[in-house]
Amino acid sequence: MNQPLAGFAPAPVTARMENHGNHMAKIAMQTGNDLFARVGSMVAYEGFVQYEPNPPAVRQIAKDWMTGEGAPLMKCTGDGLLYLADYGANVVVINLNGDGISVNATNLLAFDAHLTWGVERVKGLAKFAGQGLWNTKISGQGWVALTSRGKPIVVDCGGGEDETYVDPDALVAWSPNLKVKGKRSFKAQSLIGRGSGEAYQMAFSGQGIVVVQPSEDSTDRLRVRG
């Protein structure tokens, strides 16, 4: 191999799911250890890997996706190495190790198919955003890959009395055990968020983390409807 190109070759596999650079996830596929991934995210694979769009396990919760909190998923099966990406976004790989995470569906790249998952309403926000905010909750022993528009910051809420405030359009994920509430901001509305009118933030407190991207989503996730 040409020496300058050799530095871009994949490293030996050390885990079920890991990063290849900052913008790609590498998954070690094995028969019986299936994966759900965002439709269209496959950029390359080695070995024998098959894809099934809109599998039955996804159709079972399709009724919840009328809320808009749904990412089109495909089931990946087989043996080999699978590489996933999302238009050059940063990729964050997480081993849940029995914990859970609540993810904005637009930031969900892939997760182990055996994990427990579903679409849930975020409590405490309905009065701020009409019917409220919906997120995808994933938990169990396994791996999850998230995307971020730029290098994210992971804030440890620390369990103290101080709350952590996040623009909903920059929110990627958070620990599901955190307490969440909405906050209106009038004086800072020209500084926080992209929309006109009232600005809204999500306030987090308790033991856990919040993942925030340095770029706002293309559509407002928390706004007055009606």
TrEMBL record:
Organism listed in the record? Streptomyces caeruleatus
Q: What is this protein called?
A: AIM24 family protein
PANTHER family hit by this protein: ALTERED INHERITANCE OF MITOCHONDRIA PROTEIN 24, MITOCHONDRIAL (PTHR38074:SF1)
Q: Which Pfam families match?
A: AIM24
The record's section on InterPro entries has: AIM24, AIM24_sf, Trp_RNA-bd_attenuator-like_dom
